[in-house]
Amino acid sequence: HNLIAGNGGVDGAGGGVALCTGADFYEVTDNYIAGNLTQGNGGGVGHLGRSEGGFIARNRIVFNQSFNQALNSAGGGIFIGGGAALALGGLTEGSGSVTVEGNLIQGNLGGAGDGGGAKILWTLPEDLIRFANNFVVNNVSGLAGGGIALQDAANVEIVHNTIAHND
């Protein structure tokens, strides 16, 4: 039940809310997350690295943006991604399992990257990303996936959502 508005980030993830490796069993629920900006990933909410049992639910995630023309930042509303591989040619440690449920994700901008509403990146088969019962509407992306973009995402369920009018 928080108002999270008008915040910014330079790098990493999360202009409004940043959730990084080891934030196991977090809950981001019943918030108004609006007007946040990051030059990294996840203008509104950014989950970066391995954290098990994340729960993002019943939020209004509106008018946030990720924008960095030089770095291809992504996920205007929400970003969920594993961290970069620890060794050259190695694999990511994944993101851990996250449930995104019952949110309004509207009017967000993934300015120079993918996923105006949400971007899911670098998850492993043992990670379950469940995206259910959300309204993902009127978001804009600079590259692909105006609503939701997936890249190297192994185990994602996108069910019972309204995904409409995204560019």
What does this structure look like?
- The chain is mainly β and 167 residues long.
- The protein has no helices and 21 strands.
- It has strands at 3-5, 8-9, 17-20, 27-29, 32-34, 37-38, 45-48, 54-57, 60-62, 65-66, 78-81, 98-101, 104-106, 109-110, 118-123, 129-132, 135-137, 140-141, 148-153, 156-159, 162-164.
- 0% of the residues lie in helices and 43% in strands.
Strand residue content: 35-45%
The helix-strand sequence is EEEEEEEEEEEEEEEEEEEEE
Largest sheet: 6 strands, parallel
Return the structural class. mainly beta
> How far do the termini sit from each other?
30 Å
Number of helices: 0
Helix percentage range: under 10%
Read across the widest sheet, the strand sequence of neighbours is 1-5-9-13-17-21
Shape: globular
Strand segment tally: 21
Radius of gyration: 14 Å
Write down the overall mean pLDDT. Answer: 95
Q: Which residues form runs of ≥5 with pLDDT under 50?
A: none
Keyword list:
six-stranded parallel sheet; 167 residues; 0% helix; five-stranded parallel sheet
Summarize the structure.
This protein has strands at residues 3-5, 8-9, 17-20, 27-29, 32-34, 37-38, 45-48, 54-57, 60-62, 65-66, 78-81, 98-101, 104-106, 109-110, 118-123, 129-132, 135-137, 140-141, 148-153, 156-159, 162-164.
What's the helix and strand layout?
Blueprint: E1 3-5, E2 8-9, E3 17-20, E4 27-29, E5 32-34, E6 37-38, E7 45-48, E8 54-57, E9 60-62, E10 65-66, E11 78-81, E12 98-101, E13 104-106, E14 109-110, E15 118-123, E16 129-132, E17 135-137, E18 140-141, E19 148-153, E20 156-159, E21 162-164
Parallel strand pairs: 1-5, 2-6, 3-7, 4-8, 5-9, 6-10, 7-11, 8-12, 9-13, 10-14, 11-15, 12-16, 13-17, 14-18, 15-19, 16-20, 17-21
